[in-house]
Amino acid sequence: MTLTMGVDLGSITAKCVLLQDGCRVLADCVVKGGMIGDGAQKAVTEALHRAGAALTDIAYTVATGYGRVIFAGANEEMSEIGCHGKGAYFQEPEARTVIDIGGQDAKVIRLGAGGRVSNFAMNEKCAAGTGRFLEVMAQALSHPVAELARLGSQATGKVSISSTCTVFAESEVISSLAAGCPVADIVAGIHESIARRIAGLAYRVGPEEKILVTGGVAQNRGVVSALAEKLGCELLVPQFAQTNGALGAALYAFEKFRLAADHVD
Amino acid sequence: MESVLQSLLEVARNPAPAVTAWKQGTNGKVIGWLPIYVPEELIHAAGALPVSLWGGSTEIARADAHLQGFACSVVRSVLEYGLKGTYNMVDGFIFPSTCDHIQNTSDIWAAVFPGRPKFDLVYPANRQSKASAAYLERLFTGLQEWLAALTGSAASEGRLRESIGIYNHYRALSAELAALRSSRPECMSDLEFSLITKSALFLEKTEYNRRLAELLPWLARRTVRPRPKVRLVATGIMAEPQGILQVIDELGGAVVADDLALGARILRAPADETLPPLSALVDRHLRLGPCSTLYDCRKERGSHLLGLAARHNADGVLFLSMKFCEAEDFDYPVLKAELEAAGLPLLLLEVEQQMSALGQVRTRLQAFLEILAQGAGR
Ligand code: SF4
Fold it and tell me: Between the CA atoms of A199, A203, A206 and A210, what dihedral angle is there, to the nearest 10 degrees?
């Protein structure tokens, strides 16, 4: 039995996946606190605890995400683009496009034969269309971010948020509140605004079905359905949506370990 | 030999001491020129030192009072350096009509620094017309006269001939350096190559040629990094901020050829020494390109990049897009379509000289190199 580990150290959360023999997920977990603080350590400890394993059982570890360079416990680091592609292909071999909406960036990845990344696009240095955007809006509305999907589902209309800039969009939200617009309709407008940004990004690489949505924001059904409407096709949210990058890293770790073992033989 | 290399790197990182030393040593005039194409030979023949003003990583504060935030960082930082007094040792400035940004910065410059000698080098947009050569000849004669007035001595034809020879030698040595990074990329880092190339823009060329000629055989035997896993062609205005090159290096890639303005573009097309000297410079200008800032009805940049990639066995192209550089932006869609059709992978990276956080750039580069490494099988 070979255990490998993938750690995805994002801007807001740390994710860890433990994989057995490159095919079975033993544990996956998400911990608040990404690059700053001990999020990565906590995620690793938690995943090991859930799997009943020790750090010394791990044959190989690959780190990914923004904090990948500063995470000391890895054998290797890989880009999150590659890892998300890998994870998505494992979860859905027919996936051709991955839309990953994380805390501070959004990416659209096109997969070619064998799940290899053939093209990708990332948002520019701006929080529009990312988890951070949702957080700021949730704060302006004084609701927890996890509540947004439920709130949005009660909307009867949509308040249009026209600004791309997070700061300007926030003042639009506040003005709409002041004008007495229903919170649910504002939330629907916020979801729509993210979907617009992401769809624009997706068109840069030309989305092809099947399309997987991953990352923290994939948990928000409101965003996912607004995006599906924009792209005019069905979107799949896989089982390991938020830990897809860490899963990809663990899969890479398994491949790398095998490669290294072959060399020794 | 290490010290020769270090001296060049130091000049590129901090040119002011070298320029000041030249000025004190010769009592000559220093002429600053803005990107991209200026016949430096004319300045050299007039006994002055041509120095390039291509901006830098300085923080922009004062320049924002005169230039909009959506001007490219090259003109913004040039103006910033001017306002900060970094160019105090420069006696005259040449503004070529490269793009709207430079043309308008030239007007702003005149308003901000009234009385500081400045020459506008207004190139003909059309280089195919018969009138272009005659026009250029008059333009360069005008520049010669301006230089003569500034330096107090008119350059003889013999002197100009000599300068053209020195500059042709400079281009030939630069081509040797470029060939070396392709045949033995392990002999110098991408950053070293880029800094050596840049140092030339602040040194008197006889001196630069001497140092580079000394350096080349030593570099050819040197090893500072492993064989690259991925070979890239870089295109754009310049490979700055320099951190980008370090990231490529760390990720196991190497730039083995370039089509950068501050790089191969200004070093192309040796002057024809069989022509009368002024005509040789005119003829050279007419042959420059391909370049986003030179009108090119045949749109040859795409095929040029494909050729470079093929000749240098490169796996992909890096398009370093200087933020707000319209000339480059207009070229991109055409290039993207052409390269994609030919199956040559291309990565667009938007850069600014003032960029300090390279996290996103690193992710993009790493993903791109991972994709290329799969294909390269090195
Ligand atoms: S970077 Fe582009 S816009 Fe800026 S000075 Fe150079 S050519 Fe002009």
Answer: 10
